[in-house]
Structure formats: C-alpha cells, structure tokens
Amino acid sequence: MSSWEEDYASFCKRTDKHYKDRLMAILALGLCAEAGEVAGELNKAQRGKSFSAFSIAHELGDVLWFLTRMADECGYTLRDLAELNAGKLKRRATAQPRETDPEP
Ligand SMILES: [Mg+2]
Fold first, then answer.
1. For 22-38, what is each residue's pLDDT tens digit?
2. What is the pTM of this model?
3. Ligand 1 centre from 62 Cα, in Å?
C-alpha cells in the first residue's frame, strides 16, 4: 500500500507534460515562477487590493506540484524532504550543524 505522498507524486508525474530532455531546468524554473505567483498575490494585498487566501492556496498548490516533481526526479518523497528539513532545523536549534547541511 502506497502513502499519500507516493500517490500524489505518481499523479504529478502522470500530469507532467514537460520536455524530458530539459526536465530539471523546467521544473526548477516552474517552481520559482509559481513561488513568484504567491508573492504576486501578496503584492496585490500590499497595494490595497483584496487579499485572497483562496488564490494563494491555489498558487501554493502549483508550488507543491513542481516541488513534488523535482523531489521525485531526485528520488525523494515529500515526507523525505520534511524529515531532512526537520532534522537540519533540530540540529541547528541545538547548535550542532553537520558539515553536510547546506545553508538555508
Ligand atoms: Mg500558478
């Protein structure tokens, strides 16, 4: 039985129509672009327009899709990423960084 993150990664892969020969570059740029769309929604609010948590949730979903695809192409699940990040943050909180931990 597969986990929800494995099921979601499979769904994302099935819906990925990007060019395979440049996949990682396209995914990385897509991830940045979608993060920019999240910032764009917040920018609207800064200019006095209405804040839409629903619109931000949709853009975060787009970020999640690209993040999931990149992680999957690297052989990781979303759970793996969460565990790696939590471990890094816990070590940092106790001031015991490992040399292999990248900067934030
Ligand atoms: Mg979007």
1. 999 999 999 999 999 99
2. 0.85
3. 5
